[in-house]
Amino acid sequence: MLSPTERPTVDPAATGDGEAFLADLDRRYRVPLIRYFAKRIREAYDVDDLVQEVFIRLVRQAAIESVQQIDSYVFQTAANVIRDRARRQAARHYREHDELSESDLPTNDLSPERVLLGAEQLERVIAALEELSECTRQVFVLRRYEGMRHEEIATHLGMSVSGVRFHMEKAKAHLARRLEQTE
Fold this sequence. Notes:
By secondary structure, the chain is mostly helical.
């Protein structure tokens, strides 16, 4: 940290160059700010963003060149950045968020092997469905592929709801057995 008497070497009032003044601030304070934030926050990936936020706030401060205790001002700004970050995280319930890992994401891998396996499994399902009685097959198709409710199927086919349930269970058990045999 700089002593209170140590000021940036470029005097913007003398040169009229605020950009050089800010470049000098960056050169002097970037590493100390990185250390400051690294000691105070857990997420190391946020440190550079927080340092950048300090410099953005310093740029927005119109009379930054006239600040007498620049060292204290820079680190007070850094403390405010941390407070604002904590407020934002609290408002967004940051600690309650779950991390999304790459393995949680579904894959859209349509490799030739995956396409072939899917086609073969579809053929096995169709063959197993064809082994069912006409009534059982109709109940299964209406429920699974047409999305009809048991009551609607019963009305459509002229049977009881318990009969629909019986045929659905029969179809599911048959399909499970047939698919298990071929794997």
